[in-house]
């Protein structure tokens, strides 16, 4: 019998009984989105944290000039939201949208807190996921500050295996903070 992707994710950190996992599932809601569907607009309340079961999402922000800056991609087994807006119940400063048809398990902050009270080891799970996310963000910032475009490109390939085949080159360039021309030179040099 195939195990649920969410249970596999959780059990990388904490073990659950079948009964505990049943309780976990009661707090989540399965949601499906279409390609190009915006899940969270800048300025909206971030009501959900999403666990991506299938598909691809991105977190981005438009600047005053209309230029898109991509902060994160969320593919299978990734969590994605505007973390600040979600945890502080504030307006989102980011946009979350689907790059492919996407199937998720969504969780509200209230359900997350309730779940942690009902199954305390879930608090350990979420804490470790948050710490890992913070470490990944710190590495991304340091890579951005101290690496050249080629190193940032290789870092992207290691963090998101298979992503390059799933998104347009303009999005790769936006994530790396380089021009499309620079990205073309990088990919040609790699070939």
Report on the structure:
This is Crp/Fnr family transcriptional regulator. Residues 12-71 form the Cyclic nucleotide-binding domain. This protein is α+β, with helices and mostly antiparallel strands and 191 residues long. The chain has 2 domains: 5-146, Jelly Rolls (Sandwich); 149-191. Helices cover 47% and strands 20% of the residues. It is built from 8 helices and 8 strands; from the N terminus they run H-H-E-E-E-E-E-E-H-E-E-H-H-H-H-H. A 4-stranded antiparallel beta sheet has the order 1-8-3-6. The protein is globular, with a radius of gyration of 18 Å. It starts with a helix and ends with a helix. The model has no long low-confidence stretch (mean pLDDT 93).
Brief digest:
With 191 residues, this protein is an alpha+beta fold. It contains 8 helices and 8 strands, in the order H-H-E-E-E-E-E-E-H-E-E-H-H-H-H-H. The protein folds into 2 domains: 142 residues, Jelly Rolls; 43 residues.
Topology readout:
Elements: H1 5-11, H2 18-27, E1 29-33, E2 38-40, E3 49-54, E4 57-62, E5 68-74, E6 79-80, H3 83-88, E7 95-98, E8 102-107, H4 109-118, H5 121-146, H6 149-159, H7 169-176, H8 180-190
Antiparallel strand pairs: 1-8, 2-7, 3-6, 3-8, 4-5, 4-7
Q: Give the CATH level 1 class of the largest domain.
A: Mainly Beta
- In total, the number of strands is 8
Query: In what range is the share of β-strand residues?
Result: 15-25%
Chain-averaged pLDDT: 93
The value of Rg in angstroms is: 18 Å
Helicity range: 40-55%
Helix tally? 8
The domain tally reads 2
Give the strand order of the largest sheet, numbering strands 1, 2, ... along the chain: 1-8-3-6
Give the N-terminus to C-terminus distance in angstroms: 41 Å
Largest sheet: 4 strands, antiparallel
Protein name: Crp/Fnr family transcriptional regulator
């Amino acid at each position: 019998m195939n195990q649920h992707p969410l249970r596999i994710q959780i059990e990388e950190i904490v073990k659950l009984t079948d009964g505990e996992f049943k309780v976990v599932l009661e707090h989540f809601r399965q949601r499906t989105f279409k390609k190009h569907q915006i899940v969270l607009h800048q300025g909206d309340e971030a009501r959900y944290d999403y666990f991506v079961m299938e598909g691809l999402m991105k977190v981005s922000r438009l600047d005053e000039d209309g230029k898109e800056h991509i902060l994160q991609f969320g593919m299978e087994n990734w969590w994605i939201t505007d973390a600040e807006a979600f945890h502080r119940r504030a307006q989102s400063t980011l946009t979350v949208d689907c790059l492919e048809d996407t199937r998720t398990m969504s969780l509200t902050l209230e359900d997350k807190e309730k779940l942690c009270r009902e199954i305390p080891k879930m608090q350990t799970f979420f804490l470790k996921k948050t710490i890992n996310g913070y470490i990944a963000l710190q590495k991304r910032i340091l890579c951005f500050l101290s690496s050249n475009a080629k190193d940032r490109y290789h870092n992207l390939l290691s963090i998101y295996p298979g992503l390059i085949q799933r998104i347009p080159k303009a999005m790769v360039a936006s994530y790396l903070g380089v021009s499309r021309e620079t990205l073309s030179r990088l990919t040609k040099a790699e070939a």
